[in-house]
From TrEMBL:
Positions of the ABC transporter domain: 4-224
Keywords: ATP-binding, Nucleotide-binding
Name of the featured protein: ABC transporter domain-containing protein
Keyword check for Nucleotide-binding: yes
InterPro entries in UniProt: AAA+_ATPase, ABC_transporter-like_ATP-bd, ABC_transporter-like_CS, P-loop_NTPase
One Pfam family in the UniProt entry: ABC_tran
Alphabetical list of Gene3D superfamilies matching this protein: P-loop containing nucleotide triphosphate hydrolases
Domain of life of the native organism: Bacteria
């Protein structure tokens, strides 16, 4: 069953067409990788899916906002509070209280592998730990769709592995995940299906094995070209 269906999506910024008739679906228990070079329209698409940006045309069928866990590229955490205090604060914002808030906080800490560091101030966290805490915040409200925008950018292999492991555990429980990354080998390992986009259009879609010849990076470069984008 599709948790998210995007059809004919279009968004322009003045005369720039950022998203140009994009369509894809993410099913229950599936990790879908939205891949594309810088400026392809991924972040714009994600912003529309999570409801922070309005489309010019097209449709998005998604869970209600409170059932979407959105983890943006930029961190939204309080550095002076501990990891656990941050989670308790955001749990309160979601309307979780008392024992319910406490037990959910402990569950998400465990899911991202941060229980042992939960009482350290977030300002002292490594980049990878902060990313994992940001993901934990996105999980607090038991979303049915988790949207991860480059969650492993600039983190060390340990945190990257912890992040991929958590995503795999979560999809095993039925969560649908929309994922962006510039690391093709990561998409190969993690994503059940990928969509390669450029200039706001879907160029190819399928499993990494279907698209990758000889691998996903080669397919990506063949489809999107070698010209530098930024
Ligand atoms: N607020 C904005 N105003 C004007 N143009 C914008 C705005 N946001 C994005 N764009 C442009 O829209 C296009 C798509 O950008 P978008 O950020 O969606 O791409 P992306 O695939 O997420 O790129 P990246 O991999 O760099 O995050 C780009 O050409 C970008 O410069």
């Amino acid at each position: 069953m599709a948790v998210l269906t995007v059809d004919g999506l279009r968004k322009t910024y003045r005369d720039l067409v950022a998203v140009d008739g994009l369509g894809f679906a993410v099913r229950e228990g599936e990790t879908y990788g939205l891949l594309g070079p810088n400026g392809a329209g991924k972040s714009t698409t994600i912003s529309i899916v999570v409801g922070v940006l309005a489309a010019d045309a097209g449709t998005v069928q998604a869970p209600p906002k409170e059932r979407i866990g959105y983890v943006p590229q930029s961190l939204a955490l309080y550095p002076d509070l501990t990891g656990r205090q941050n989670l308790r604060f955001f749990a309160g914002m979601y309307g979780l209280r008392g024992a319910g808030a406490r037990s959910r906080t402990e569950q998400v800490l465990r899911l991202v592998g941060l229980r042992e560091r939960a009482d350290d101030a977030v300002g002292a966290y490594s980049g990878g730990m902060a990313r994992r805490l940001n993901i934990a915040v996105g999980l607090l409200n038991r979303p049915s769709l988790l949207v991860l925008d480059e969650p492993t950018a600039g983190v060390d292999p340990q945190s990257r592995t912890a992040i991929l492991d958590s995503v795999q555990r979560l999809t095993g429980e039925g969560l649908a995940v929309l994922y962006t990354t510039h690391y093709m080998e990561e998409a190969e390992r993690l994503c059940d299906r990928v969509g390669i986009v450029d200039r706001g259009r879907m160029l190819a879609e399928g499993t990494p094995a279907e698209l990758g010849d000889p691998d996903l990076e080669a397919a990506f470069l063949r489809l999107t070209g070698r010209e530098l984008r930024d």
